[in-house]
Structure formats: structure tokens, C-alpha cells
Amino acid sequence: MKRIFPVFNAVIAIAAGVIVLAGYFLNIFMLAEFRIVILQVAALLAGVAVLIGVGNLISVHLQKIRQQKPGAIYSLVLLFFFLMTVAVVLVANSVPIFLPFEKILLNGIMVPTEISLMAILAVTLLYASVRMLRWKIDVKTILFLVTALLVLVTTGPWPIPSIDLLLRTFNVIIQVVAAGGARGILLGVALGTLTTGLRILFGADRPYGGK
Amino acid sequence: MADILCPVCGKANPEGSEICQYCGALLKNRGTEPLAPIHPGEMPTPKKTSELERTLPGWLRNIRKGDNSQAQTTASPEQPAQNEQPAPPPAAPPPPPPKKDEPPVDLLAGLSQSDEEEEEVPDWLASLKTNLPGGSVPAPEPAATEAEQPADWLAALQGDSPSQQPAPDLPAADSGVGSGSFSFNQAEESSQQASDDTPDWMAALNNPPAQNTPAPVQPAPTEPASGGTDLPDWLGSLGNEAPQQPAAGAAPTADDLPSDGDLSGWFSGLDNAGSAPAAAPAGPAGDLPDWMAGLGEAQAAPPQMPVENTPAESTQTPSAPAMSEPASPAEASDDGLPDWLAAAVADKTSDEAPPVEPAASAKAFSTGALEEVNLGANDAAQVPDWMAGLGGSTVPETTTAQPEQPVAPPIEPAPAPGVSGADNLDWLSELAAGTPAPSQNEPAPAAMESAPPAAPQQPAPSFEAPTPQAETPPPAATPAFENNQNLDSILSMDMPDWLAGFTPTETDAAKTPAGQPGAAPAADADLSPASLPSWVQAMRPMEAVISGAEGGEEDQNVEKEGPLAGLRSVLPAHTEAPGSRKPKAYSIKLQVDATQQAQAALLENLIASEAESQPIVTPKRVVTIRPLRWIIAAVLLLAVLIPAVLGLSFFPAPSQEPENEIGKFHSLVESLPDGGPVLLVFDYQPGYAGELEQAASPVVRHLVDKNMRLALVSSSPTGVLMSENMMDRIQAELSNENKPPYPAGDKYVDLGYLPGGEAGIQVFANNPRVLGNDYTGEPGQDLWNTQALAGISKLSDFGTLIVLTDNPDTGRMWIEQTGQALQGQPMLMIVSAQAEPMIRPYYDSGQIHGMISGLAGGTVYEEFTKRPGQASQYWDSYGASMIAAELLVIVGGAWALVEHLRTRRMEQQLEEDEA
To answer: What is the dihedral angle through the alpha carbons of B586, B587, B590, B594, rounded to the nearest 10 degrees?
Structure first.
């Protein structure tokens, strides 16, 4: 069985990949239908994976509370609000009275919390930029700081219209440079994805297990 | 008369004898080397065989010595016959170093000579007569008396012969009474018991023969031979024994005889010794010298005596006629025979009983030595003295043995005609010449070997030839038996070197019947001493192999010291020193080029640096300036709040550019037909809601204003909440504007969460109906039958696809998975400012048709729609915070740089001060 399962997994993975890939290029009804079935199975498995992830998260934090490890209080808070949110959402779907509670959980806790984190991030980044030259002075540090400063200057509005126009023109130039770098990254990602797909189709890489 | 005691049998032999007349043992031993064969035509060289005494093996000398001592102590007339032991040979003097330059000598010839040194006859020998079972019976005296003064003890021995003694007088266990003599039958039995390595004749020499002594040994007195007047008495009587053999040979039948292969060759020769005259004519005796011819005549004469005078005639068995058969081939070959052989044949055939067996089954033992014996009978001048005496003494002895044989046992047939006397070896000849001596107690070797078990009461010391068929009862538990076992154990040992001289050719020649091919080479009995029997060769050390492999003894090294001393070629020898060549001189100066030196120096430095302790460089402690953090936070907070609170508008609105991504976005939305379906994807996190909601709100509001049917979906779990929050926000705006709400189901549907990542997007792109339940609608409602999704069956049925995401990967995923399914329908993107650089390439490539990025994009889009919204309100705050951040970075960086330089200068100053 130890020999059969890896081969069986490889056959399934390669066959599914070939079918899905062929569905992009071949306009065959049966092939498209079969490809959709395969993708639906994959989507269901992904949904199940989310549930499994939630279950794993609960078990980890429960274990942390049980063992009274450092930070167990945070785990306790997490589990409390997790169960509360699940309960509220489930009840709110069936009982409209609980819908405001659902909005409170979203707009009163989740969104402000995450936005606040982004604000703290802005302060932290500024602090780091200010202290960067204090810690280390070299070409890379100076270049990094100058680039960030230029993006800020060219992106943000300026009260003076002439300067604002000048800076926006200059921003176009910066965006071109930035776009070139981003396009290179995207090309690299695309090639990597293509290579990975081919290796999986050929069976060289088996992320599903087996040698 | 000084008789010589046989070292083996202890019997006295006439002075000058070299071979014991009774047992054939060599009275004096000269060495271990075999005798050189005497070829036909050659005259025997007289040799002094007394020197051979010293070459006898130790065990043989011990036997002799023990025999003497035992005989003196135990042998007495009162003792029973069964206690008699064969006379061990007296102790031989220590052997002198062998003379290597001497030719091969006759081994057994020295036995007779050795007795010459012992001139005194021991008492035990004299009393043997009375000790024997038949001692009470007077032996036939004529043979002893007529044979010119035979020894007293010999006469007594003859008188001890049990042939005249009735068998009941002796118990069965006393069959070995005559152990003092050697019986060939006994020897054959003991040879079977002993190891196969022992020759038969050796076994015969060491076994007490009395137990197996056949009855036919008779001391019947016969007339001595005519010749041999110069011979001593005992030889005269011994010479008379030879003729009796033909008579005795008539007793056994040829059928009872063992096969030739069963008999040892030399024994066959011994058997034929008695009948040698009959066999001699058949051989190519023409090469024999005259003296040998005379020997044949002398030996032929005695047979008349036993035939005529002994009672053997009356005891002949029906097989007796077969005994006369050998005479016929003798006659047939009479023409080619020399004179002496012809005469011998004539005498033999005329005197003997009819021939028994054809010559084919006869043993060829007509050795040259035997012929010498025969020759000596007539021509004693040409024969050594002792040999001459043998010839004349054979007749009376054999004749005395003949009448006593009760039942004629199978007799050995006549010798093969094809075997000549030259085929036999000298020592065998001499041994054969001695065979008549024991025949004084038994008629003939043929009779001895075939003696029935019923007649073993013959206690006479007989020198019987060993025969395989000798079915004698086992010896009783007597001292003689024990002595026999001791002898067997001695004989079972490895063969001594001197026995190696008895090559298989000698025995094989005698064994081989005349009719077989093996008999022909015997005629060329030019045996080499080196031709050892196979079993002896197997016992030889590996020296021979090694020497043969290495090509000679010259190349062999003999170890002279240590435990291997005396061994040869056991260690490899180096004839040449391995390092004889002068080694090449190499310069010890290191020859390296500059590169190698540089590399060596580098390596040396590396090694040296590894040995040096490196100072631990403590990283500079990062001092967190908490006040600075608060200052930065305060500055940013103030920059945001002040414009928002005060409502200041310091920053002008971004310019509207219809050709840019925002303008195209707006144009596409504007180009959509009112009330058309639009798919909105909410894939952003709540943390980016402050940015994306300001950028997406103008678009959604624009869509709502166009009364578009909206289908909301999210590939992120939190996206569903964002879409719901967005629609709530739009509802709120509509409510604030006193516009009708945008009802769910009719104007928009929330398809909810789309799981599966790319796969889910791919599935949804190919079949949007996979999502069938409205997240906010009534349970069980078919969304695809609602007004919002009326007529939508595939992705391309939507007028446009708008993706709201803060993650460039998510945007790329939607672009890649839905590009084909849209079938040309426009795709629009509302992304965060941080994702814009990654999504812009897709916009530049035309895969997406419009893009709104961040707050600035939302503000611009509001400008396009002429509906200012929250994006415009946040614009000044955004601008102020951006400027504040820029200033903080600039000022803070400058201050940090100055501080760094100052610190560095202070450190340098401190270093200078310390220096």
C-alpha cells in the first residue's frame, strides 16, 4: 500500500491538472464539464480546509489555556469572541433581531481594530525612517530613504498647485519605474507558476506527498 | 658350528647365511636402499651383507632383541606351546651412518649374516622343539640327520611339527602353539587386520604363524639332496625343502586357490619358489647364466624325494592332477629355455605330481636370486656360499613336509611361463631361496596358504606364505596373541624409509599373472630405487613437489636454524635484495611558483586568523525613543484631525484625466446600460476598509445611481462582511438623500463567500450558478431567479466585473481566472494604493480596462461623477498627514544624520584622546 498510494496520488494529480489545463485551450463540452466537476471538488475541499483550520486554531488555543502558558489570557479572549461571533452570526441569520449585534461586531470591533493597526504601522514606519540614518549611514540606507520620500512627496497632495502639478508629473515617472519593477516581479511569478505547474504535471513535484 | 640366529624368527641359520632360511628375513642389513636388480646375464656380486644389520629399522631390531630376551625367560620345555612367541630379533647394534656411496643393497640379505654374529644358539631355540605341540612326537629324523648336521634346534623344530601329532592333542586355542614360527597364513590374516599400508610380507614376519599354521607342515624326513656337500647342515636340509613344494602343491586344488590379485606378489613368488623349477623353463631363461641353469638342476632333483618317500602322495586331493599342469607349459617352452632351466623342467615334471594349474594362474616368482639358489645346488662355486647352501638343503626339508599334510589345500599353480627369473628381484629371490627353510615344517607354500581350518594344530614353526584365503581360527588370548597385536600396532605405523625401496613394481611384477599385460614389463625389471609405490609417494613430503615446481634442488634453500631446520624451500628466498638499485636523488628544495606561494601564504593567514581570538563585536543597542514615537503619532494625528475637524481645504483636488485609468474606469461604468448586471467582488480586508471604501464608494454609488443590478461575491471570508458593509453604507447615503433604498434581491444579491481560491474563481467563472443561496436573502430562495440576476447564466452575461482588493495577488488571480470567461466584457479594478504598482501592468497590458487606486483615485472618481463624497473630505487630512510624514522623514533623517555624525566625531575624539 505504501507503493500504491503515492502512485495513485500522482496519477490523480497529473490527470486532474491535464484535464483542467486542457479545458483552457480546448472547447470540448465534456472536457469542460469534467473540468468543472474537478474544480468544484477542489473548492469544496478548500472550504473544508477552512473549517479544519478553524478547528485547529481552537484546539491550539484551548491547549494553550489548559497548559497555562504565557499569553494564555489572549487565547482565552480569542476563543471567547470567536464563539460569540459564531453564535451571533448564526442567530442573526435566523433571528433578524440579532442583526445589529452582527454589525457591531463588524464595524465596532473588526474594522476599527484592523484600521488602528494600519495607523500604528504608519507611525512605526515614520519612526523607523527618522531613526534610520541614526543607526546606519550607507548608500543603501540613504537610497531607500530617498525613494520612500520621493513616493510620499509625489503621491501626496501639495497645497501649491504648481508644485503639485510638478510633483504629479514627477510621480508618473516614478510610477513607470515602479511599474517596471512590478512587471518584472509579475513575470517572475508567472514563470515560477508555469514551471511549478509543469513539474506537477510531469510528476517531478508532488506537493500532495510521495517521492 | 656357529649358527646365525634369525633376528625375526630366532631360528638358527648356518653360518654364512644372509637370509633366514625359515622366515626369509635379512640376517644382516646393510641399508635401506633396494638392491640393484640383476639383469639376465649379469653375475651376482658377492656382498658382505653384515653391514645391512645396522640399517634395520628400530622396531625390527627391537623385535629381535625382545625375542631373545623373551625366549630366555619364557621359553622352556614345560611351557605350553601356545605361550611361545615368535622369536624376536636380537637387539641390533646401533646403525652406523649409512654409506651413501654404496649401491643399493639387499636388505634382507643381511639377516642371514647377522646371525653369523650370534654364533651361540640360545637355549630357547633349542627348546623350541619340546615346546611345540608336536614336540612330544618325534620328528622325522632323516631329513635332519641326512642333511649334513642340521642344527639341533632345527631338528627339534622338525620334531615339533604337529603333523604327526593328532589334532585332539591340542586345544583349539593352542592352534597358535607354533607361534614361534611364522606362518604365511597367519601373516595374511594379520595383514588384513593391520593397516593396508603394511606389506604382506611384513605382516607375515610379525605375526605368530602357529595359530594359522596349516597342517601340512610335516617334518617328514626325506633324503637329503645329493648336492651341496659344502653347505652347512641346515642348509642341506633346507635345500631339501624346495622339492617338496611341488608335491605339496599337488594337495590343494586350483579352485581353492585365491585369485592372483588377492595374493601379494611376493607371496606368489614364494609359492612358486617351491615350484620354481617348473616355472623357470617357461620364462625366457635363455639369458640366465650357467650357474642359474645349474641351480635349476639342483632344485629339480629334490622333488623326487617327497613324491616318492613321503606320505603326501596318499594325502593328495583330487586337485592334485591340477598341480601337474604347470609342467605342460614348461614342456611347451622347453625349446627356448636354457639348459639349466630345461633340465630343471625335465626333472620337475618327471618327479612331481601332475601339474595342477595352467601357467596362466601361476605366480611368476622365478627371480634371479632363486635361480641362484638353483644354480648353487649344482654349481656352488659360482654362487655365494650361503646361496649355494640353500640349494642343497631344500630337498630334504620339503620332502619331510609333504607327508604330513592331511588335506591338500589349494595350491598355487605353477609359475607363469612368461615370467622369467630375471623379472624378480634379488631380494625376493633370496627370500624365495629361504622359503624352503620353513617348509621343513610344512610341505609347500601352496599347502600353507590353503590350509583348512581343521588342521591348524600344526604347531611347527613354519614360514608360511600369507594367503588371503587362509581361514584360520582366530588366535586365542595368549601371550602370543598379545604379541601379535603389538606387532600389528607397530606395523600399522608409517612405513620406514627403508621400505620405500620396495617399489610397487617388484611386488606387482610378482602379483601380475603371466597372462596379463602387467607381466611383460616385469621382464625389464630394471627397477629404479626412485620408483616408489603410490602409497609411499603419497607419504613423501612436499619437498618433491616443491623441488619440481621450482625447477631443481639448486634453487631450494634448506633451513639451517630454527624450527624449520632441515626443511627445504619452506620460506621464499630472495636472491636479490629489493632495494639494490640506487635511489634517485631528489632535491629537497621546495620548488613553487609565485602563485603557489601566494596561495600558501593565504592559507597560512587563514589558519593563523582562525587561531586568533576575534573580539566580540557587540551590536549597538537600539535605543527606542518613546517620546519620538509619541511625537510622530501626535504629529500625524494632528495632521489628520486638524483638516477634518476644521474643514480646511488646503489641497486642491486631483486633476481629472479622462485618458488615465480612472477616467477609463468612469467611462466604462458610464457606458454600461442602466439596469444591467454588474458583478462586484469584495476581496479586501477590514484593515484596508478606510482606504478602499473611500475609493469604492463613488463607484458603487455610481452604479446604484445607474440602477445597475449588482451581484456581490467574495473570495475572502471577510469580504462578505465588507460587501454588506458597503451596501449598508450606500443604503445610508440613499437614505440620507431621501432616495429609495436599493433593495436586496431586486437590485442586488449577495452571493456570499466563494471558497477554493483560484479553483473556486475558475468554477465561478465557468458557471456562476454554483453559488445558489443568497447570503442575506430568504432561505431557499433561488437567487438566479431573482430580478437582480435575471438572465444571468454565465460570467459574460454581467456587463462588467469590478474587483475591489487590497492584495495584488488576489487581483491577479481574478484577472487570470476570469479573463477568458468574461469573453471581452470589461474588468475593472479598485485597489489599494500599495497594490497599484503590481496591478498597473495588467492595466497597461489591457487585461483590465480601468483602475482606481486608493483615496486619491476615489477622490478623482468623485470629481468625475460630480458627487463629492467622503474621499474628498478625507483629501485634506490625507494631504496634511502625507506632508507631515514627509517632513518627519526629512527632519528626522537630518537630525539622525547629524546625531550620527556627532556621535562618530565624539568617538573619534575619544579614540584620539585615548591614543
So the answer is: -100
